[in-house]
Design a protein that fits this description.
Helix content is 42%, strand content 16%. It is built from eight helices and nine strands. The chain is globular, with a radius of gyration of 18 Å. By secondary structure, the chain is of the alpha/beta class. The protein has one domain: 3-Layer(aba) Sandwich (Rossmann fold). The structure holds NADPH dihydro-nicotinamide-adenine-dinucleotide phosphate and 2-hydroxyethylsulfonic acid (8X3). The site of NADPH dihydro-nicotinamide-adenine-dinucleotide phosphate (NDP) has 30 residues, from helix 1 and helix 6.
């Protein structure tokens, strides 16, 4: 039987690549994002197995309406990929723009909680799965990542605790925690500065959106008795630095 996935942030990067790999494997995919033109272009590529929805993760009432109004068999969601997200610029928090940081919190956490809550009755009925796009930034602190890292730590812990609440329902929950993936993520983080984004990923072989999409596809295709709780991935050329020590 054809399965249906609901992917947030399907207009770019990891979400778009995941939509493509799932449709190519026979899934039906609901793809959500704010950019209608991107959704139309993706729909033109993927055909009738793709159902585009224009939506903003910060508009909780609209997310609930979207779930209530999913048409026909599109309401039978087997997999929720909580992928939409962004990071504010990497300024030290004491110098950072508060609005940009609050915006990241609303985007990465509030809507995700509301959307997950709205889809859970269906996911429970269908013994489905939730895959959350967290990050290494939720486990390892780095300068300029205070709020972004905190949103991802929230997401990891939300998923782990949700597993406890869903015990016995058959619903699986996985936190995928990548390091550097070359997408539009850094372009967005740097306010559209393409040179800065290119410089970050230069000469270090970052992971690709397709790498992460293949991982999501693998997790989503595992047999129902198996739950991957957390999965951390990095490019080989990204590793760990030591503690910073300030001396007067
Ligand atoms: P992209 O910037 O390429 O994609 C982000 C997606 O999120 C877009 O489709 C965008 O759609 C959507 N999005 C952003 N804000 C909103 C909003 N308010 N409402 C609806 N959709 C929104 O980045 P990635 O593909 O890299 O990021 C996907 C996820 O992976 C994010 O949660 C990110 O934190 C996480 N991640 C990324 C890593 C990386 O190095 N790239 C590493 C670890 C985790 P639109 O603008 O059309 O609304
Ligand atoms: C983004 C991954 O390593 O750029 O979530 O912080 S990293």
């Amino acid at each position: 039987m054809t399965k249906t996935a609901f992917i947030t942030g399907a207009t770019s990067g990891i979400g778009e690549a995941t939509a493509r790999i799932l449709v190519n494997d026979g899934w039906n995919v609901i793809g959500m994002g704010r950019r209608k033109d991107r959704l139309i272009a993706l729909g033109n590529d993927l055909g009738g197995a793709f159902h585009p929805i224009v939506g903003d993760m910060r508009d909780i009432d609209d997310l609930q309406r979207i779930v209530r109004q999913l048409p026909g068999s599109w309401a039978e969601v087997d997999l929720l990929v909580n992928n939409a997200g962004l990071a504010p610029p990497m300024d030290d928090f004491q110098d950072a723009d508060l609005e940009a940081n609050l915006n990241a919190m609303h985007t990465n956490m509030d809507g995700l909680v509301a959307l997950t809550r709205a889809l859970l009755p269906t996911l429970k009925e269908r013994r489905g799965a939730i895959i959350n796009l967290s990050s290494v930034a939720g486990s390892y602190p780095y300068r300029g990542g205070a709020v972004y890292g905190a949103t991802k730590a929230f997401l990891t812990q939300f998923g782990l605790s949700l597993r406890s609440d869903l015990s016995g329902t058959g619903v699986r929950v996985t936190s995928i925690e990548p390091g550097m993936v070359e997408t539009e993520f850094t372009l967005v983080r740097n306010g559209g500065d393409k040179a800065a984004s290119d410089a970050l990923y230069a000469d270090m072989d970052p992971m690709t959106a397709e790498d992460i999409a293949a991982t999501i596809h693998w997790v989503a295709s595992l047999p129902p008795h198996l739950n991957i709780n957390r999965l951390e991935l990095m490019p080989t050329n990204q590793s760990f630095a030591g503690f910073a020590v300030h001396r007067d």
